[in-house]
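Bumping my old thread because nobody answered last time. Still need a sequence for this structure:
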């Protein structure tokens, strides 16, 4: 039995991020209590960064930060996973009322050289308006010099590969993939613990003061994988959506009670449809909880029909 005597999964307070491309869908679809009258683009659901900390909102650890859990109760909560100075994932909800900038996140070697952080990510489409798109990779083969000229000419958007998406689609975005999120998408994003983004083109948008957002063309050109042509969405094959050395993501249809992971392993669950319960904590769509490694009652039970959720784990390499 854990010295913490944890009897329920851990839930956390979301952190809302105002974005010029955001909307109010996290409130209307998920019932999030957001700041009034502001475009909220992101809800950071699980984060351990110097500038942002998830706070436990239930149980004996209420008020503790995720970083405190990571440093003080590593074995009890997270079990045997690879060491890191901070919890290695950042999990968000994204509401793209408008399309995001064309951008890239740097791979490992490039990130360290540029003073940034590497960022590989995964997108799960919770809801998509008719005609919603993702922008992933290049439409055709292009060289760095050719693309640099396109950026200077203002035609970078002509070279992005567009994919029409629907609810339930999923995409893998390894670091270095040129990409953007199209308007009308509501996503779950699971990513490396990083906040480094290099913008290439922002559709000539301006903020309330008439100023355009900063671009990072030189850094982006060093980070983009120019061999990444016409990538595809992840295939729908059983429960496994993605297995990577950074994270594994499964989607379960929960029609009967089921143990989320064996004892001494931790997992994060995000409800997609329906509702479920673990111990005395319920999840509804857009809500997350963390099942600690030493929690005894780790059985998930559907509360309503048609319950689905994402199971997020970190491989012990």
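Sorry it took so long. Here it is:
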């Amino acid at each position: 039995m854990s010295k913490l005597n944890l009897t329920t999964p851990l839930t956390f307070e979301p952190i809302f991020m105002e974005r010029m491309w955001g909307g109010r869908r996290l409130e209307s679809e998920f019932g999030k209590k957001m700041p009034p009258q502001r475009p909220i683009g992101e809800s950071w659901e699980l984060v351990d960064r110097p500038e942002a900390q998830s706070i436990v909102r239930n149980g004996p650890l209420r008020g503790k930060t995720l970083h405190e859990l990571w440093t003080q109760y590593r074995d009890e909560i997270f079990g045997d996973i690879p060491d890191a100075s901070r919890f290695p994932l950042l999990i968000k909800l994204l509401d793209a009322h408008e399309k995001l900038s064309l951008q890239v996140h740097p791979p490992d070697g490039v990130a360290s050289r540029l003073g940034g952080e590497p960022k590989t990510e995964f997108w799960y489409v919770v809801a998509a308006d008719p005609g919603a798109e993702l922008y992933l990779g290049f439409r055709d083969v292009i060289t760095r010099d050719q693309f640099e000229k396109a950026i200077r000419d203002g035609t970078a958007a002509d070279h992005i590969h567009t994919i029409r998406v629907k609810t339930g689609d999923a995409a893998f975005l390894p670091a270095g993939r040129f990409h953007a999120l199209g308007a009308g998408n509501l996503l779950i994003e699971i990513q490396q613990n990083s906040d480094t983004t290099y913008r290439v083109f922002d559709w000539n948008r301006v903020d309330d003061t008439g100023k355009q957002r900063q671009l990072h063309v030189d850094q982006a050109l060093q980070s983009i994988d120019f061999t990444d042509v016409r990538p595809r969405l992840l295939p729908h094959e059983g429960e496994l959506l993605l297995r990577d050395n950074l994270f594994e993501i499964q989607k379960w249809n929960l029609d009967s009670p089921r143990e989320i992971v064996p004892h001494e392993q931790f997992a994060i669950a995000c409800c997609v449809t329906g509702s479920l319960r673990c111990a005395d904590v319920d999840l509804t769509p857009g809500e997350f909880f963390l099942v600690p490694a030493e929690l005894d009652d780790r059985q998930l039970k559907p509360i309503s029909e048609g319950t689905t959720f994402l199971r997020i784990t970190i491989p012990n390499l």
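The first strand starts at residue 15 and ends at 23. Let me know if any region looks off to you.
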